[in-house]
Amino acid sequence: QVQLVESxxxxxxxxxxxxxxxxxxxxxxxxxxxxxxxxxxxxxxxxVATISPSGRTYYPDSVQGRFTxxxxxxxxxxxxxxxxxxxxxxxxxxxNFRMFMAYWGQGTRVTVSS
Length: 114
Prior knowledge:
Blueprint: E1 3-7, E2 10-12, E3 18-25, E4 34-39, E5 46-51, E6 57-58, E7 67-72, E8 77-82, E9 91-99, E10 101-104, E11 108-112
Parallel strand pairs: 2-11
Antiparallel strand pairs: 1-3, 3-8, 4-5, 4-9, 5-6, 7-8, 9-10, 9-11
């Protein structure tokens, strides 16, 4: 069955960096857009990065220039490199794709605090 497993979250100081990874299985990974979302406490889930099967990317203004999404279609992984982190980046980060319905991982928590 479809599985998305995120890893790499943790506690980081402001202006620090983290790299998140999502391992995917159970579907033809190379055929789908892959997304990273985040959900901060008390806020709606927010899209932070998308990558197409060919590697085309999209970022909202809130993370543009700081976050980089990448994928390895041979390993079925999608990563999110996060630089210059801010306290407002604190959230649970979730891997996602859509195939008739939305599939989500369990999330990995990122806390940006001094």
